[in-house]
Amino acid sequence: xxxxxxxxxxxxxxxxxxxxxxxxxxxxxxxxxxxxxxxxxxxxxxxxxxxxxxxxxxxxxxxxxxxxxxxxxxxxxxxxxxxxxxxxxxxxxxxxxxxxxxxxxxxxxxxxxxxxxxxxxxxxxxxxxxxxxxxxxxxxxxxxxxxxxxxxxxxxxxxxxxxxxxxxxxxxxxxxxxxxxxxxxxxxxxxxxxxxxxxxxxxxxxxxxxxxxxxxxxxxxxxxxxxxxxxxxxxxxxxxxxxxxxxxxxxxxxxxxxxxxxxxxxxxxxxxxxxxxxxxxxxxxxxxxxxxxxxxxxxxxxxxxxxxxxxxxxxxxxxxxxxxxxxxxxxxxxxxxxxxxxxxxxxxxxxxxxxxxxxxxxxxxxxxxxxxxxxxxxxxxxxxxxxxxxxxxxxxxxxxxxxxxxxxxxxxxxxxxxxxxxxxxxxxxxxxxxxxxxxxxxxxxxxxxxxxxxxxxxxxxxxxxxxxxxxxxxxxxxxxxxxxxxxxxxxxxxxxxxxxxxxxxxxxxxxxxxxxxxxxxxxxxxxxxxxxxxxxxxxxxxxxxxxxxxxxxxxxxxxxxxxxxxxxxxxxxx
Length: 574
Hints:
alpha/beta; Rossmann fold; Heat Shock Protein 90; elongated
């Protein structure tokens, strides 16, 4: 918005037309009083035309204001302003003519009435007409000048004195009108500047939000390339661990594994944040049996809690909740991780209690507590309390940021209660499952050993192919490692390979091919629904949908070797 003179003038005139109707109400009253007072004092041949012209002018000004309000803002505003000022000048002339035609200076009552009426109208119109002070100048000068002239020219000492007093009053009002006009213009400028600042602020906010979303989309889209080298490294490490015998080598190896997993955690957390910001995370609500979920989380953090002398416990419950099991588990897991990693020698407990149609889940710790001023900051990315040395064992500062985004996605409200030296409690409510009885699939899975398993691997990254070849060899698996769908089919056909027990394929292959297409082609070649696993660094929901459609498992890079082994065992045993 430009704060130029034209816009300011337009706004002045808009305000002039907006305020004038209230002025006319008083003007009509004064016309009636003056006409009534002079009805028996003045010849009707003079009074009636003046009264008729005053009424017609008032009606014309009302029509002018109505027309402006109906057409605004699609009008040439300045022209309307000068038209209004001209009507004010005519009105002033009519009132000035009343002094010349009706006033007998010897009639003190008439002098008093006109002086009160004219000065009163002038005072009442000061603010409304000073918005566009040409209108005020015209009305005040033309209405009071004849009255002043009549009094001063009378030669009567008192009347002359009153005339000069009214003249001083007129000059003061004209000066004051100038000041009011300047103040109004400054206020209009300030309002325009505030509007412009707000628009700029909103624009900058939208730009920043768009940049943040684009950043998140970029990270989500390029996660495949970010994960690929780390994925290969984890597979190499998994293969290397099988051949280490020396205790010192094993100790060094464990430190390398620890560093690799820390890097994996960081990348996974970054990808989680980027996916949530980019809006590519779907919510899939289903009945969730809470107790196995809580027991699994407690088991995962049991060793870490023991290292910090923390007593970790969970409540027992047989209640079902309606939620996304993966996202709900991530929220609770991150809250427990936050409590365990940032405290020591205390109690950490996951407590649940039923409240109306909801289940309140609390993660409580009797640790160091959180200052009141920090309760909002802790949900920011990479923000950590009491970790200036950036100890990765205390986390990466993304856990609660992910909790905030996930809770918003699930429409949960996470509350924080904490007191320094007493402890902290993070809580949120989850709807209870009130549907018909739900039968959960069995979690008992019989895992087969991988020795002798024939695995077909399709991946276009040479490092990944080398790493998974070494890993499968360490598990005594037979493998055929190929870089494309065409290469796999060619070797299977020419060398008369037996049907693979398992197909592991990267999702994105060369020549814009996908792992789903490659698996389908191999299955068609053997005319059999061979078990398969899709491994990908891209977290787009469309990939999961494609994999589910062909009955394939999906694993995300970077992938720990132990996780791959477990999923392989599960897949081939189904």
